[in-house]
Amino acid sequence: MSSQDSTPPSFLTQSPSPSSGASFTFQASPSPISSQSPPVEKPYHTKRPHKKSRTGCRNCKARKVKCDEGQPSCHSCTLRKVTCVYPTPNTNSDSDKSLAVRSRSPIRSDSENLIVFRDLGQRPVGTQVDEMDMKLLWWYTTESYASFAIDGRPNALIETALKVQIVQLAFQHPFLMKALLGMTSLHLQTLDKDIPSVRALSYRAKAFEGFRNAVENPNRETYSALLACSLLLCGLSSQTFREPDGKPLYILDWMVVWRGIGIIVDMTKPKILLESGLKQLFFRPKINLDETVSYIPNRLLFMAQSIPFTDPDHAFVDTYYTALKYLGSLYKELQTSGFGPILDLRVITFFTFLPQAYVDLARAKRPRALVILAHYLMFIGHVVHVWWVQNIGTREITNISSELGSEWAFMLETPLATVPVPTENQIERARIILENQEWVPPKGGRYDPDDKRLQEICWVNDRGREVVLETGEVIIPRSPTFDEVHQVEESNSEQNPLNENESYYCERYVTEDGEPAFSNDDDERPALIVEASEDDKITRPIPFYTRI
Question: Could you tell me where the Polar residues compositional bias lies (predicted)?
């Protein structure tokens, strides 16, 4: 930015405290709010008087020409076919002028990324913001948005969803704006910034109240905002874990907040989710539940499968077994792939897979449900790149041990063994979890942010399998290189052969008569990604392919 740009708000320029627990590197960039410098003295020339524009776009200012301030793009930028970017006004405004935010985030690429917010729409009275709100909004678009980019990689689609789509929705829906500002306040508090606690609490309370009211009175216009808010509330509600007088076993309430995401997704028609621009935020790694069983510790399997008929828990053997299979996916990931973004995603999304029956058992504090939960909490200590889950596992494992007492102590020996081990000692913690002191992590223990399996995460159901719509379509990630996905014609090797050595996304499967080839309950499906080769023979059912 030019030297004329002002510096960030003072409370944002303090260095993060070493004890804050934040795992990203947060460095404030220059503020996008510009001020007009005194004009440089020049020789006098007679010229026609005109009103000097102080709110023109950045391109016109750089070229030192008058800007007509047209929206969304001025006349000059339109003619030159360049992106028109307006500076953020110094005071609050009810107009719909663009907000330009220069981002310096932990998941950005090496070059600075400029995000432009346009067409924010008519702002309801409830979304008017003051100076503090604008500071928080600025911090969200430069730093806090990355709190939900779990894998930590530059991804244009995810960044746009977090930095553009959610902010635009927040200006239209007050409950989402409160959640966004509350999450940002919480983030700054963890970095020891001077944020009034009363204000932060007010954001949180109003966010939950507004969200609850919107859920009770849903309509098509609020679905996208509800989706975004359900995600932000998971991070926002984590503050209770860090409060000195926080509720013991708050993890049980937090599970319900996470389950709320599934409720909102179920309320939302797939078409709305696809059109919202947020679908990438709800992708999860697939799970093969048949494979995960062999990775469940024997003592946990025995605990679930040896429940006597006289025990009230016997009616829930299948529920416990299902929960253990999801837990097994974490053991499998750690043992076979080690540390990385896929493990982080599996840990973060774990609660979204669990059956409601298990959640009810855990909230009833049934011992076996709490034992399973304690073993899950060990894995949270490996999610070191997400600040809002820091130290949750250590606290809640101890609380579960206190709740169950000595009778179940033998089932909690491994979780308790991880409590005194710092999260920095990742290999030592993993060896305790896997109960294998000889375990050597793949890739030498490195965290691999470029795991190729990230290309395979998609919209999956609660059985861990990709969602197939009634039309036969599969919701899959799109390459961030393209704005549109072009579907080629129905292919076979004679009429329209696939090009050699090119990758394709399989977007839809149909039979010869055009009907969906399979449903979510089918066991056999073609692979989502197909490598074409010279002797490629496509068999029925015919896939529709989308080129990467």
Answer: 1-28
